[in-house]
């Protein structure tokens, strides 16, 4: 049992109720909660002085905090964690929320990327947060690869798959690339690529680079390795992450400290830093997971929360994830079933499309 879980089991009924009501009121309003306001909602008639004493005890345990000079209390990160783990009441998915998410299926588009983009937009609209959708890797055999020189520090890789799927990805090539070195790199890749998926090609190319290192022009060699990073390393994962609804995070934020926190979050989202961890977070267990504040490896600097769930293909293999990011005072009870339903929906759709 965790420390917070032990604290919760050792609390008496009054302390547990005060703690729960403080957290619920804070999640609802975002404001510190005072003892006087709680006297009107407690199940038993108790004085404000009694509630203040209980709040002080909860503060001593590290579950509540007193912001600035306010007489009210707000939950700490540890307090929110304990509430989510032990006291959170998850509501049923509302019919109108389900309908808004289901409506994204109306177009019946064959393009998985477009479908996931629409689902991300719907998820953002329903939750009023920023939505994150990590799309699955495309594992069909490759038919053709081409590099296009766009400028001194930009290039395009065009991936044509045997099933007709085409992906265009912009990346930063190593310095000194020329159109001829890019053609040489593309020829090298195409000689190995046909009939292989990207994952298979990655392994083969590494073996070939080691075996033929002396045969490949050094600049083309650098480009091959940079191109690999586009689909295997951070670049590829960046392309797979769909972010929608960032503007929602600014609504109702006027305090300078809060705006700075959100600017940091925007910066994180723009760079999509450490996105490789997004799927790792979801893969640690089935179902919805909640990461609060510094537990949230992706956006720890922004003081935000991430509610995330993986989705699976027909073979029950985790291939992607969907999530919602917002302030730590998210309405977790409502967000959890929305994320859970969306993840299951995406998994079914991907499975149906084979």
From TrEMBL:
Keyword vocabulary terms for this entry: Repressor, Stress response, Transcription, Transcription regulation
InterPro entries named among the record's database cross-references: GAF-like_dom_sf (IPR029016), HrcA (IPR002571), HrcA_C (IPR021153), WH-like_DNA-bd_sf (IPR036388), WH_DNA-bd_sf (IPR036390), WHTH_transcript_rep_HrcA_IDD (IPR023120)
Record-level Gene Ontology MF annotations: DNA binding
Transcription found in the keyword field: yes
UniProt domain Heat-inducible transcription repressor HrcA C-terminal: residue ranges: 115-336
Signal peptide location: none
GO terms (BP aspect): negative regulation of DNA-templated transcription
PANTHER family (UniProt xref): HEAT-INDUCIBLE TRANSCRIPTION REPRESSOR HRCA (PTHR34824:SF1)
Family according to the record: Belongs to the HrcA family.
HAMAP family reported for this sequence: HrcA
Reported function: Negative regulator of class I heat shock genes (grpE-dnaK-dnaJ and groELS operons). Prevents heat-shock induction of these operons.
This protein's name: Heat-inducible transcription repressor HrcA
Organism field: Marimonas arenosa
Gene symbol of the encoding locus: hrcA
């Amino acid at each position: 049992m965790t420390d917070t879980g032990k604290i919760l089991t050792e609390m008496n009924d009054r302390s547990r109720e005060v703690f729960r009501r403080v957290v619920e009121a804070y999640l609802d309003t975002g404001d510190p909660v005072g003892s006087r306001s709680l006297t009107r909602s407690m199940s038993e008639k108790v004085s404000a002085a009694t509630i203040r004493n209980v709040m002080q005890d909860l503060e001593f345990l590290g579950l509540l905090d007193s912001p600035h000079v306010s007489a009210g209390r707000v939950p700490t990160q540890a307090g929110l964690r304990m509430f989510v783990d032990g006291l959170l009441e998850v509501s049923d998915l509302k019919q109108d929320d389900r309908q808004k998410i289901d409506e994204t299926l109306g177009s019946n588009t064959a393009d998985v990327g477009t479908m996931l983009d629409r689902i991300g937009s719907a998820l953002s609209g329903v939750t009023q947060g920023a939505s994150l959708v990590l799309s699955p890797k495309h594992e069909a055999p490759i038919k053709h690869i081409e590099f296009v020189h766009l400028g001194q520090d930009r290039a395009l890789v065009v991936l044509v798959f045997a099933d007709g799927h085409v992906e265009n990805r912009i990346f930063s090539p190593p310095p000194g690339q020329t159109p001829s070195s890019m053609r040489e790199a593309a020829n090298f890749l195409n000689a190995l690529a046909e009939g292989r998926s990207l994952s298979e090609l990655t392994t083969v190319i590494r073996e070939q680079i080691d075996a033929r290192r002396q045969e490949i022009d050094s600049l083309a060699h650098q480009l091959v390795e940079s191109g690999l990073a586009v689909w295997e390393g951070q670049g590829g994962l960046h392309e797979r992450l769909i972010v929608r609804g960032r503007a929602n995070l600014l609504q109702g934020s006027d305090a300078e400290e809060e705006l700075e926190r959100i600017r940091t979050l925007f910066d994180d989202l723009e760079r999509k830093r450490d996105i490789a961890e997004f799927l790792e977070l979801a893969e640690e267990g089935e179902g919805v997971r909640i990461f609060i504040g510094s537990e949230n490896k992706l956006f720890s600097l922004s003081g935000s929360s991430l509610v995330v769930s993986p989705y699976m293909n027909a073979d029950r293999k985790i291939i992607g994830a969907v999530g919602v990011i917002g302030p730590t005072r998210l309405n977790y009870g409502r967000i959890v079933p929305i994320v859970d339903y969306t993840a299951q929906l995406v998994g079914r759709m991907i499975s149906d499309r084979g």
